[in-house]
Design brief:
Blueprint: H1 4-12, H2 17-36, H3 54-66, E1 76-81, E2 86-89, E3 91-93, E4 99-101, E5 103-105, E6 109-111, E7 113-117, E8 121-127, H4 133-147, E9 154-156
Parallel strand pairs: 8-9
Antiparallel strand pairs: 1-8, 2-7, 3-4, 5-6
C-alpha cells in the first residue's frame, strides 16, 4: 500500500496540474453562481399588441355568439391575423409626379392619419365540447358568412 507522501508526490508530477485545478475551481464557482441567480423572473405586464386588441375582441364576440348554441356553450375561440393594423396617412402630390406626407407642425412634427385599416383574418379555430357533426358544419357556415372567410380557413373541433 502506498503512503500519502507517495500519492501526493505522484499528483504533483502530473503536467499541467495547476491549470486543471484552476479550471475545476472556476467550474465550481460558475456552478454555485448559477444556482444563486436561478430566481424565477417576474412576470412582465402584457405588451400592447400590434392589432390594438382586435384579435381578442373578435374572439370574445364570436365566443358570445357561439354561447347561444347549446352544444357550443363554453367554446374556446382563436383567431389569427394576416397582419397588424395598417395606418393610411395623408399625402400631397407634388408637381414632379411624386408625393410627400402631409405634416402638421404644432410643437412637433406629426403626419395626418386618414384612416386605420383593420387586419384581415387569416383563420379561426373553435374548440367545443360535445358538438355534433351537423352543429360543427353549421358553425363553420355561420363563421364563414359572418367573417367573410372561406370554409377552408375555419376549423371547428
Amino acid at each position: 500500500m502506498k503512503s500519502i507522501y507517495d500519492i501526493v508526490t505522484g499528483i504533483k508530477s502530473i503536467k499541467g496540474l495547476p491549470f486543471i485545478l484552476l479550471a475545476l475551481a472556476a467550474g465550481i464557482v460558475f456552478f454555485i453562481l448559477g444556482t444563486i441567480n436561478d430566481k424565477k423572473p417576474e412576470p412582465e405586464p402584457p405588451a400592447e399588441t400590434e392589432d390594438g386588441g382586435y384579435t381578442e375582441e373578435i374572439e370574445t364576440r364570436v365566443g358570445k355568439l357561439l354561447s347561444g348554441i347549446a352544444e357550443c356553450a363554453g367554446a374556446s375561440v382563436m383567431v389569427t391575423l394576416e397582419s397588424g393594423i395598417e395606418n393610411v396617412w395623408a399625402r400631397d402630390e407634388n408637381g414632379s409626379g411624386g408625393s410627400e406626407y402631409v405634416i402638421v407642425k404644432n410643437g412637433g412634427e406629426t403626419a395626418i392619419p386618414i384612416k386605420k385599416l383593420t387586419p384581415r383574418i387569416a383563420g379561426i379555430a373553435v374548440v367545443t365540447k360535445g358538438a355534433g357533426t351537423e352543429t360543427k358544419l353549421e358553425v363553420t357556415r355561420l363563421l364563414s358568412a359572418l367573417l367573410g372567410l372561406p370554409t377552408t380557413k375555419i376549423y371547428v373541433w
